[in-house]
Amino acid sequence: MSFQDLPAPLQAALTGRGYAEPTPVQSAVLQPETAGRDLLVSAQTGSGKTVAYGLALAPELMGDAPRLPPAAAPLALIVAPTRELALQVKAELAWLYAPAGGRIVSCVGGMDPVAERRMLSHGAHIVVGTPGRLRDHLERGNLDPSALRAVVLDEADEMLDLGFQEELEAILEEVPEGRRTLMFSATVPRGIAALAKGYQRDALRIEATSADVSHGDIEHRALLVAPHELERAVVNLLRLEDPRIAMVFCATRAAVARLQGNLSERGFSTVALSGELSQAERNRALQNLRDGRARVCVATDVAARGIDLPDLGLVIHAEMPRDPETLLHRSGRTGRAGRKGISVLLVPHTRRRVGERLVAAAKIKATWGPAPSAEAVRARDAERLVEQALALAAEEPADDDVAVARRLLADPAIAGRGVEGLAAALVRVLRAPLPAPEEIAEIADRAPPRAPREAPSAAAPGGADEGGVWFRMDVGRDGRADPKWLLPFLCRRGHVTRQEIGRIRVLARETQFEVAPYAAQRFAAAARRGEGEDAHIRIIPMQPVKGPARRPRR
Ligand code: AMP
Predict the structure, then answer these.
(1) Are 9 and 54 in contact (CB under 8 A)?
(2) Coiled-coil regions in this chain (predicted)?
């Protein structure tokens, strides 16, 4: 199916936008057998689903006419879970239906309801809104449902997750029998199936979620990081990849506020998106990202839903998502509209198993590795600085600049250092605005052994027959070396889990303990650095520490 069979004004809009070929979900909903039928479509954001239902509605909106009739009572209603998504849908349908003379009105929570009522009273072809606000307008008689020929539920699963079932049912009860109902949903859990059964007639099921289609342009990485170094890893990733726009996900509003504050302090231009912002603040944040005033958006899951920023090149999951669907939704903010994107899952090494399960359940292929080191960032900086300086030097210089350059070269202070000194000064100026990279402890890229459940002192770590590497620390019975304090301290200090610590001998003035062979190098490196109030406690290996041995098989 191509765009050629569509009404001329729609074709003109698509051509104007540079969209030559339909995406798979667009092709699917435009097949002849879908005409006039209810549809239940699995499609993710980024798949082109908005244009897909926009095009699918053309027969209901335009019939055989060359243009839309004058705007009166709305012909189609689109319900979306969040304000952002609703406004994005409105923007997308606005250009699609502009040549056909379309008038689209939005009704969303957080916006002025009186202005919306006024817009509705002037007539509309399509109304787009969030569930609560649409129900309000229906109940108050501002929104006349009598002429509706089609209803679209966009991100239906998300609307149920957000607790909008009652609003959706109230809306669906109001619209005339015989209308077309299109449901779009990333997943089809039981609640969605029930909604479809109750409110659709003989719906055609369309699957357009093939991993290749929606995630083909996303490179997934999973990086093992010490739990207290997540933020440093975020800093180095942002610096290394240097995307035009990056989105960093946290689990809570408090974490968003904290991370945004810390990133800003380091010199990143950031905005935050979380539920506590007013609509105006959210719009401003998104606008700052679009026009380049901000480059990093720190967000919670709900706040970032449906956001479409084509320049977004990097997604960082600073806190692991709670389920595979969230992992996919978050990752889907990048790699949009045919562009490439990178999605990085930061996995605290103590939760590696959880991370592995998450990646497997999301059916994505991720490359595992360590977080980028400060050295890697500096090396990339060097390349970029050279490129930047060469590009500057290639430009035709302005006369004023040449005059200053001549004065500089003639100055005895500069003449002594020569061109190298001048070039180094230029590099310093170019480097100045870049946030400093962070030193990060090396984490061995090894799976931990399956946890032995015995008490730590009962067996050697990493396998009963296999000896661990012994370390010594200068706190003994005379200090506070009791097991209650010891184990958590060692895990914290050495970035290991309890299972990776083996036998412990508390002596009078020192404590000796064993670390699983595969974790010994990591432990030694982390323990050497020491942080916080216990940093003065010295920990040294009692035998040579070799590279990570093979993980024991059980
Ligand atoms: P959506 O899945 O609706 O969020 O759309 C994702 C992005 O793809 C939006 O920026 C659309 O404008 C864009 N898009 C939609 N249809 C096409 C197409 N046929 N070709 C290229 N890009 C498209």
Answers:
(1) no
(2) none
Side chain identity at residue 353, one-letter code:
R
Strand partners, 107: 129
Hey, what amino acid is at 46? G
Q: How far is the CA of 308 from the centre of ligand 1 (A)?
A: 9
Is the separation of the CB atoms in 188 and 40 below 8 Å?
Answer: yes
**DSSP class per residue in 70-134:** PPBS-SEEEE-SSHHHHHHHHHHHHHHHTTTT--EEEE-TTS-HHHHHHHHHT-BSEEEE-HHHH
Domain 449-554: top CATH class: alpha beta
Residue with CA closest to ligand 1 atom 17: 48
Looking at residue 314, what is its pLDDT?
97
| Side-chain half-sphere exposure of 93, counting CA atoms within 13 A | 31
Q: Assign domain 3-207 one CATH number from 3.20.20.140, 3.40.50.1580, 3.30.360.10, 3.40.50.300.
A: 3.40.50.300
Low-confidence ranges of the chain (pLDDT < 50): 210-215, 445-460, 462-465, 553-554
If you count them, how many residues does the chain have? 554
* Residue 367 CA to ligand 1 centre (angstroms): 28
Probe residue for ligand 1, chosen from 47, 308, 331, 339 as the CB with the greatest number of ligand atoms within 8 Å = 308
pLDDT of residue 466: 53
The rounded Å distance from CA 303 to ligand 1 centre is: 21
pLDDT at residue 102, as a whole number: 97
Can you say whether residue 203 is alpha, beta or left, with left for phi > 0 and alpha for psi between -120 and 50 degrees?
Answer: beta
Q: List Cβ neighbours of 180 (8 Å cut-off, separation of 6 or more).
A: 36, 37, 38, 57, 60, 149, 150, 151
Question: Which two structure tokens, joined as six digits, stand for 78?
Answer: 């689109």
Residues within a 6 A CB radius of ligand 1: 19, 21-23, 26, 45-51, 92, 308, 310, 336-337
Query: Phi and psi of 18, rounded to 5°?
Result: 85, 15
Give buried/exposed letters for 481-519 (b at 16+ CB in 10 A, else e): beeeebeebbbbbbbbbebbbbbbebeeebbebbbbbbb
Nearest partner of 351 among 373, 326, 320, 322, judged by Cα: 320
CATH 3.40.50.300 fits 218-372, yes or no: yes
Residues 507 and 4: their CA atoms lie apart, in Å, by 83
Q: Which pTM does this prediction carry?
A: 0.51
Q: Are the C-beta atoms of 546 and 519 separated by less than 8 Å?
A: no
